[in-house]
UniProtKB/TrEMBL annotation, chain A:
A Pfam family of this chain: ChlI
Gene Ontology terms for molecular function: ATP binding
The name this protein goes by in its record: Magnesium chelatase family protein
Domain AAA+ ATPase span(s) in chain numbering: 217-401
SUPFAM superfamilies membership: P-loop containing nucleoside triphosphate hydrolases, Ribosomal protein S5 domain 2-like
Family: Belongs to the Mg-chelatase subunits D/I family. ComM subfamily.
Organism annotation: Kribbella caucasensis
Cross-referenced NCBIfam families: YifB family Mg chelatase-like AAA ATPase
TrEMBL record, chain B:
Gene Ontology terms, MF aspect: endonuclease activity; nucleic acid binding
HAMAP family attached to this UniProt entry: UPF0102
Family: Belongs to the UPF0102 family.
PANTHER family with a match to the protein in the record: UPF0102 PROTEIN YRAN (PTHR34039)
Keywords: Endonuclease, Hydrolase, Nuclease
InterPro entries: Restrct_endonuc-II-like (IPR011335), tRNA_endonuc-like_dom_sf (IPR011856), UPF0102_YraN-like (IPR003509)
Cross-referenced NCBIfam families: PRK12497.1-3, PRK12497.3-3, YraN family protein
SUPFAM superfamilies tied to this protein: Restriction endonuclease-like
Protein name (record): UPF0102 protein EV643_1284
């Protein structure tokens, strides 16, 4: 009898594809078929739509109804096609103008009573609709906040199918009960940026230097020390040192958070770098992303452009920790599943915190470690060499002696953040003609060609390299860190002193005051 | 006669009139064998049509068309075969149609004809 079509969006990872929802009503006994590779939650859409249509005061056709989702080969998952299916069905049965439907994208899950429930990933879907040139989109009212963040598309938040139909018909929009927000699957506290200040940290000269350099250049950080020495305290204060996200970055981060269900309904763009602290029992899939059939983003993608803090890192399963190696290098993660391959961004600053040994006292000036050498060995092997090699800054954090810090007022977050901002500005100016923004992002070959160290610094590092104290990767990493220290110090290029300190920061050696750095050898004769 | 049978018969009468108006030639009504009953056998051009008539007084239990289940259709196919066998005819085409009759408590009855359901 009739044919009509409406538009919705399928998500593969963060990438949205426009999906055409066609409905054909033909002669035949009443039967509704849904084709186009739907998964279980989408197949149930038939029954939801039938009830919602009837309970919205419309007639469900007693005919052979075929609903096709195209492209037919793309597997489709989720319940957000309901609104588009219901609209195309009503247009096919002649009670809705189908010209209206061809210019608007619709997403939303229907309740049996016709209410529209919120969906995940509305931001990414709206982005896809806007990029495909659609000027209008209908979303569940609870998702309207995040959808409105996308420029260049008009967003309608709807509470029920009745409201959608009124909107499409141009009649007066009926009032409905406001929707109830669903509880979040991941608690919001996961993305909460700790509200703490560096002012509260006494002493910790080395730790402060480490997090300042990490924030300035985006360097991964490994903190170890006895329990209660302040590792977590420092890590939490690191995010406060990082500047706000740029508009582009914040849209990237918000899209991931929307898909992971972390955005609240009164969503604004995520502007602060996220701080994600998965527990050390986290599973592999929860960390890198996964899920059956269609992949979902994991903790490392939620930490994109922010900080991933793993406390008690040696307690984490070594295999789980090792999966971070590839995203640490590339800045993204590809999750392969039977139905799709999804690519999620994952450029995060990794902070690992660890005790030096199971009893926690090894290497401290005051305590006596009771661990046997075997236990110590096993414990230290839990963080693999490749992971450790990727940590630019390795610091031992010792408890501040009581009373040792009186007098001097500790620097506040605002003061240090200002220095970090200046250092970042210097970097973005230096890399203005390149795709990189931070020292830590510059690839090795480019680094060696365009931003080499001066001769003395180079000689210093080559000596460490030939004596086996530095790996080839470590060499580049020290060079990057030296540039960051130079940016923080406000000097044109890394000096020998700064290069030496960069090496100390990486190798875990105690820092010498910059003023009394003794050139290691060879230079003293000169 | 019970009410439901009277309603059914009234529906079949309406259906037969509807088919005749649509140009069908009614060959037989309420043909029975040991397998069951065919409501209407008709000819539509070159096609032989076995027609099932379903009458309902309201939509409380769904549309009359919804009552035609897969089992009912299989039964109709069997009956069609049996009818052809007993009458030794060789039509160019055979078809099963359904006529749904809705007889509301108030207002005029409606007749809906669905062609070629099986």
């Amino acid at each position: 009898m009739a044919l009509a079509h409406a538009w919705s969006v399928a998500l593969v990872g963060l990438e949205g594809h426009l999906v055409e929802v066609e409905t054909d009503i033909a002669q035949g006994l009443p039967k509704t078929t849904l084709i186009g590779l739907p998964d279980a939650s989408l197949s149930e859409s038939r029954d939801r739509v039938r009830s919602a249509v009837v309970n919205s005061g419309e007639r469900f056709p007693d005919r052979k109804v075929t609903i096709g989702l195209s492209p037919a080969t793309l597997p489709k998952t989720g319940s957000h096609y309901d609104v588009a299916i219901a609209s195309s069905l009503l247009a096919a049965s002649g009670v809705l103008d189908f010209h209206e439907l061809s210019r608007i994208v619709m997403i939303g899950e229907l309740g049996l009573d016709g209410r529209i429930h919120e969906v995940r990933g509305a931001l990414a879907m709206t982005l896809a609709a806007a990029r495909s040139g659609f000027a209008r989109i209908i979303v569940p009212e609870l998702n309207a906040g995040e959808a409105r963040l996308v420029p260049g598309i008009q967003v309608y938040g709807a509470r029920s199918l009745r409201q959608v139909l009124a909107l499409l018909r141009g009649t007066e929009i009926p009032d409905e009960e406001p929707p109830r927000a669903e509880p979040k699957l991941m608690s919001e506290s996961l993305t909460r940026v700790p509200e703490v200040d560096l002012e509260e940290v006494l002493g910790q000269r080395e730790g402060r230097r480490a997090i300042e350099a990490a924030a300035a250049g985006g360097h991964h950080l490994y903190l170890h020390g006895p329990p209660g020495s302040g590792k977590t305290m420092l890590a939490e204060r690191l995010s406060g040192l990082m500047p706000d996200l740029s508009t582009e970055e914040s849209l990237e981060v918000s899209a991931v958070h929307s898909l992971a269900g972390l955005l609240t309904s009164d969503a604004e763009l995520v502007v602060r770098p996220p701080f994600i602290a998965p527990h050390h029992t986290a599973s592999l899939a929860s960390l890198v992303g996964g899920g059956s059939g269609m992949p979902r983003p994991g903790a490392i993608s939620c930490a994109h452009r922010g900080i991933l803090f793993v406390d008690e890192a040696p307690e984490m399963h070594p295999l789980t920790l090792d999966t971070l190696r590839q995203p640490l290098e590339s800045g993204y993660i590809e999750v392969h599943r039977a139905q799709a391959v999804a690519k999620f961004p994952a450029r995060f600053l990794l902070v690992l915190a660890a005790n030096p040994c199971p009893c926690g006292l090894s290497g401290t000036p005051t305590g006596v470690c009771t661990c046997t050498p075997q236990v110590l060995n096993r414990y230290r092997q839990r963080i693999s060499g490749p992971i450790k090699d990727r940590m630019d800054i390795q610091r031992q954090i010792l408890p501040t002696a009581r009373g040792a810090t009186t007098g001097e007022r500790p620097e506040s977050t605002a003061e240090v953040a200002a220095r970090v901002q200046v250092a970042r500005d210097r970097q973005s100016f230096r890399y203005r003609e390149t795709p990189w923004r931070l020292n830590s992002e510059v690839p090795g070959p480019i680094l060696r060609r365009d931003y080499p160290l001066d001769e003395a610094s180079q000689r210093l590092l080559e000596e460490h390299y030939s004596s086996g104290r530095l790996t080839a990767r470590g060499f580049d990493r020290v060079v990057r860190l030296a540039w960051t220290l130079a940016d923080l110090a406000g000097v044109e290029r890394p000096t020998v002193d700064l290069t030496h300190q960069a090496f100390q920061l990486r190798s875990g050696a105690l820092l010498t005051e910059l003023s009394d750095v003794r050139p290691i050898k060879g230079d003293s004769a000169a | 006669m019970r009410t439901k049978d009277a309603v059914g018969q009234y529906g079949e009468q309406l259906a037969a009139e509807h088919l005749a108006k649509a140009g069908f030639t009614i060959l037989e009504r309420n043909w029975r064998c040991e397998l069951g009953e065919i409501d209407i056998v008709a000819r539509d051009g070159d096609a032989l049509v076995v027609c099932e008539v379903k009458t309902r007084r309201g939509l409380g239990y769904g549309s009359p068309l919804e009552s035609i289940t897969y089992r009912k259709l299989s039964k109709l196919r069997q009956l069609l075969g049996r009818w052809l066998q007993q009458h030794s005819v060789r039509p160019a085409e055979v078809r099963i149609d359904v006529v749904a009759v809705l007889v509301p408590r108030t207002g005029a009855p409606t007749v809906e004809h669905v062609r070629g359901v099986a």
